[in-house]
Amino acid sequence: xxxxxxxxxxxHPRDTWSFDAGSPINNGxxxxxxxxxxxxxxxxxxxxxxxxxxxxxxxxxxxxxxxRDPTNSAFNFPTLAFNAVRDISLDILYIIGxxxxxxxxxxxxxxxxxxxxDAEWVKMMLHxxxxxxxAWSSRYGRVWAIANxxxxxxxFNQALVDxxxxxxxxxxxxxxxxxxxAAKFGITPTLWDGLxxxxxxxxxxxxxxxxxxxxxxxxxxxxxxxxxxxxxSCSGFTSRLVQVMQTxxxxxxxxxxxxxxxxxxxxxxxxxxxxxxxxxxxxxxVIIDDFLFYCGSDNAYPNYNE
Length: 306
Prior knowledge:
There is one protein chain. The protein is α+β, with helices and mostly antiparallel strands and about 300 residues long. The protein has 2 domains: about 1-75, no CATH class; about 75-295, no CATH class. The protein has 9 helices and 10 strands. It has helices at about 1-10, 80-100, 105-110, 120-130, 135-145, 170-185, 200-210, 235-250, 260-270; strands at about 35-40, 45-50, 65, 155, 160, 195, 215-220, 270-275, 285-290, 290-295. Strand 9 and strand 10 form a beta hairpin. The chain starts with a helix and ends in an 11-residue tail after the last strand.
């Protein structure tokens, strides 16, 4: 967590009040300034920082929230659009790779680590265009904590995969292009289902499992018409995670002991469950090492809210 806050607390020209002005993680005394700060927003609105009502002050730690202008429902932070473009692009890259004969890797998992929030060129780019890291602090914190877990990862979430663009015109356009290319090469195409998989979370889970950390995920009920059900089956998520791990082994992002395969490690250490059909869950909780607890309105699956 110290590493996370060193990253988030760094001075930023457009974030003079949020995490930067909040108290440090250890024995801090300063408080958020409670004033709106102007950030480079397409909507031209500002951020606001508020002390959470009734939040206890533990060891001098202040708790601040980063929220959007309630009068504007559009993308308020450029980083949200950046995350959306990144996630959707990786998923399109994945489905393109699935249409390449005899290519048995997840192409998006090859590219994913190089476009992560920890990639130096990404940090420099965001800084150069004055995008504040505070706007995606919960996302970054969750991913970092999962990847660096020491004993256990427990996630309780509606889903880890988002279907918010499923069936929309953009997905149809991508699939029409895939069909055209497949026809030219005489292959049967694999079409995109429109689901968005957060590769930052997939790669973090793979790193935890590579370190022999047990991972348990409880999601909402199995895929169905209910808006609160999970977007994928348990076996579907597990097989995709195995493919990601196999790719990260090839690219040497992770390693496993000799004789242990990604499939074996996932079978031994990974558990993905749905609650009973008809009982939806809307929780957003992550527990790391039975020590760090995150509970928020910000979902672990890609949905681009603050």
